[in-house]
Design a protein that fits this description.
Blueprint lengths: L2 E8 L3 H12 L4 E5 L6 H5 L1 H18 L15 H11 L6 H8 L4 E4 L2 E5 L2 E4 L2 E11 L4 E2 L15 H5 L7 E5 L3 H12 L3 E6 L10 H13 L3 E4 L3 E7 L2 E6 L4 E4 L1 E4 L3 E2 L2 H4 L20 E3 L2 E3 L10 H15 L13 E4 L4 E6 L2 H6 L4 E7 L4 H6 L6 E7 L4 E9 L2 H13 L4 H6 L10 H7 L4
Parallel strand pairs: 1-2, 1-6, 2-3, 6-17, 8-9, 8-14, 9-10
Antiparallel strand pairs: 4-5, 5-6, 7-15, 11-12, 12-13, 16-17, 18-19, 19-22, 20-21, 21-22
Length: about 450
């Protein structure tokens, strides 16, 4: 017999956990299904532990910048404090009891297992079946993708999950994929002494971002000893005697102790059984409207909607879905100002459209560019001051549709630009603002003044 509840939440990543808790606190009877850890990828394998890795790596880099500015320094990397901090402070040794207790303490029924839609407003997980009076909220997130490279399957390669669990930095590391995960991990391990090579099929790193961002991060990584190979296709992988061998399409071979595969993520919609709700199981994502509705009695949030694989996106969509499930009024989802940050050193923060994306939409575009190192604060900062501000303006409307803040604290500088894009602040207003001196964000003023077609 199916158990009757108001809402079933499938997947307890940040947005799903948030939604389940809010709905229960609003008085609804909620069943929440999770096959892995309550809290999802972010606190255990992604946002939090990886930024601990990068924080430690940044400290090493800062220590190496002391000569010539503040005295002498000798830096000896030690990965053990990083591994210990991840286990003790971030993941509780990958135990989700605290998160699970927090959720059940709000009145949510927690079900361990993989949820599957088995009928209209019906979810089965293990030997339990739930029928949802109001509907089902899907937040299954994504899993690391395994590219179809000959010989890869079955080898002990790393994804972000295994990299975060590492108890030591490998002597050498091949990174397959030059996206956010690839470049962040490459820099972190290189700063701890690993010999690192990035292999990226596209013509540049961070391909979805501005070309200037790609050029900057490639230059910085190469200067730190990372080998960067773009436009390179991996065709075969071998693993023997503790060594990975990666063969490229031209026949060249590379070897390393470890191989990190960071070539994207996917959602298994067929395994979820969304066909029972009339949705396409062969699709890569679940289309939703402005209230996160995917079908009658079905809402979806997070990675699976294809609007950005970010914790902040999942939480944003959670609030919208909860309002709709509760019958409350609110603004529909708007994605013109989605912020994103690559937490390398320098940080690459971006919001809205790139110049290429704006031109692809046939928008009348003006851009403004200003180097961080030429600002007063950049000159003062000196070591590690590479970066820039780039603005993308809708020339007819006189508002920003996109911006990039690359450099020291680029993700923090991005805040002002995200507000400008989201609120459609006229660039004339930005031009007349008072910017504190000497700050990194004052470079925004220079970039606004540089706007031109």
């Amino acid at each position: 017999m199916a158990e009757e509840v108001d809402v079933v939440v499938i997947g307890l990543g940040p947005g799903g956990e948030d939604a389940a808790g809010r709905l229960a606190e609003a008085g609804l009877e909620v069943a929440a299904v999770e096959a892995r850890l309550v809290g999802g990828e972010c606190p255990y394998y992604a946002c939090v532990p990886t930024k601990m890795m990068l924080r430690a790596a940044d400290l090493l880099a800062e220590g190496r910048r002391i000569p010539g500015m503040a005295g002498d320094s000798t830096v000896r990397p030690d990965w053990s404090p990083v591994a210990a901090r991840i286990r003790d402070e971030a993941t509780d040794d990958w135990n989700d009891k605290t998160a699970a207790d927090r959720l059940t303490g709000k009145g949510v029924t927690l079900v361990r297992g993989r949820g599957r839609l088995t009928g209209p407003r019906e979810v089965t997980a293990g030997d339990r079946t739930f029928r949802a009076r109001r509907g089902i909220l899907i937040n299954i997130g994504t899993e690391p993708s395994e590219p179809p490279i000959d010989g890869l399957a079955g080898t002990p390669y790393w994804t972000n999950r295994e990299a975060v669990r590492a108890e030591r930095a490998p002597a050498s590391l091949l990174v397959l994929g030059g996206g956010v995960v690839g470049v962040e991990m490459a820099q972190a391990f290189a700063r701890f002494g690993s010999e690192v090579t990035i292999v990226e099929m596209a013509g540049r790193l961070l391909a979805p971002e501005e070309p200037e961002s790609s050029e900057l991060i490639a230059k910085v990584l190469r200067n730190e000893g990372v080998t960067v190979r773009t436009g390179a296709q991996a065709t075969r992988v071998r693993h023997a005697d503790g060594t990975f061998t990666l063969e490229l399409d031209g026949g060249e071979e590379m070897t390393a102790e470890r191989l990190l595969v960071a070539t994207g993520r996917h959602s298994d919609l067929a395994a979820l059984g969304i066909g029972a709700a009339g949705l396409d199981e062969s699709a890569r994502t679940i289309p939703v409207d402005g209230t996160m509705r995917a079908a009658d009695g079905i809402w979806a949030i997070g990675d699976v909607t294809g609007k950005g694989q970010f914790t902040h996106m999942s939480m944003y969509q959670s609030a919208i879905a909860v309002r709709d499930i509760l019958g409350e009024q609110g603004s529909p989802a708007a994605y013109r100002a989605v912020p994103r940050v690559t937490f390398t050193d320098p940080e690459i923060g971006a919001v809205g459209l790139t110049e290429a994306q704006a031109r692809d939409q046939n928008l009348p575009v003006r851009t403004g560019f200003a180097p961080i190192e030429e600002s007063a604060r950049g000159w003062i900062h000196k070591a590690g001051n590479e970066g820039f501000i780039k603005l993308v303006e809708h020339a007819d409307q006189g508002v920003l549709v996109g911006a990039t803040a690359a450099g020291p604290y680029g993700g923090e500088i991005l805040g002002a630009l995200a507000v400008a894009v989201h609120a459609e602040v006229p660039t004339a207003v930005l031009r007349d603002m008072i910017y504190a001196y000497p700050t990194f964000h004052r470079t925004i003023e220079t970039a606004v003044s540089a706007l031109r077609e």
